Amino acid sequence: MTNPGIDEDRLRTEARAILRENDLGGYTIPTKGLYPFQWNWDSCLVALGLAHVDEDRALTEIETLVAHQWPDGMIPHIVFHADHESYFPGPDVWGTARATPTSGITQPPVLGYALRRLLDGARDRAMVAPRVAALLPKVAAWHRWFASARDPEATGLVAILHPWESGRDNAIDWDDALARVPTDGIGSYVRRDTTHVDAAQRPTKEEYDRYLWLVQRFRRLGWNQAALHDASPFRVVDPGFNAILIRSAEDLAAMARALGAPEIAAEAEGQAGRGRAALDGLWHEGLGQYAAFDRAAGTLVESASIGGLLPLMALEPGHPRADALVGRVAGLRSAVRHPVPSHDPADPRFDRLRYWRGPLWLIANRLVADGLGRHGRSDAAADIARDGLALVARSGFGEYFDPLDGRALGGKRFSWTAAMVLEFLEMA
Ligand code: GLC
Fold it and tell me: What's the sign of the alpha-carbon dihedral 205, 207, 211, 216?
């Protein structure tokens, strides 16, 4: 489709150039300077964009990530392929003792979801299908790890143990749980992020102290994942993270059925079903959407963030809660100039500039748009895609954007923003 006023060719060319310049050979860094390594969910989402350019390279992106899976099944949130001074906390802080250093926590499991998009959209299925088939047992192992290490009481939902695992690092959702994390004994350190990006657009020093305390606590436990859950003062069940896991389990099952792996399919169907059934426990009547559950405190969190809208991508079509979520997205759409803010602007804690406390992110929009399409609202999904294209055409390939005036924020020439532009060009 053509979108009046948007130079689609220029956007496409620029998006491809950004993915090329951030390609360090087999993996794509999110952006130069600020994020000089491979990030887990960035790579999976970047693969969606790469698939429009080069399917072989898209699969390589994922294969490189999965090659660093831990023996227990976890796929880490950062792979430190090379040394780099410009990032803190680096490998020496994590101390995970892996041959190629990695962090010791994980990130939203969009892997199964991304792989299914690559498989279903494959132009060269003979090349793509066997490589996807070879990855399925690894995806299954990661999902199994989630069930045991992050849901030890078999509730059907998994907890994140560090805000960085959510992918929405400083979301308002984590404030109360993070406030209970101590800061004693962390020592002095020098942040690097604020040398690349205005501090007003980044998490605060208090947040950083607590992030580091958690890393140090887990490190002292030898990164024994089986021990971390109960030892962490921060244990939060994020509806967004769980929705992504449920959807990835559904997509894993579909791929496994199609590619002749019925045991993986049955296991994944079971996991998706248990997750869906448990999701309703995160419904917050007052907010009219899903909310995070603070597992350590035993309470639902009063925070209307985009995490509580992502279940759109996991609920079965026709699910009674879907209409309310579609309505919430429409409400947010009319509250800002550019959808979808990462937090409800009606909340006094909303901050239009600060990272995940208000700005809009094209990757989150991509997942919301998927959910809208799943529930029969392709019109609203296309509207989000079109707005994303117009935004980038005007402001550039920022990391995130001010939803009120559309200015680009954070890092520049950002890989997943480029990848989402390539996606939105197909959807809008
Ligand atoms: C930030 C984001 C996270 C992302 C990473 C690399 O930490 O919050 O979602 O994966 O940057 O882009």
Answer: positive
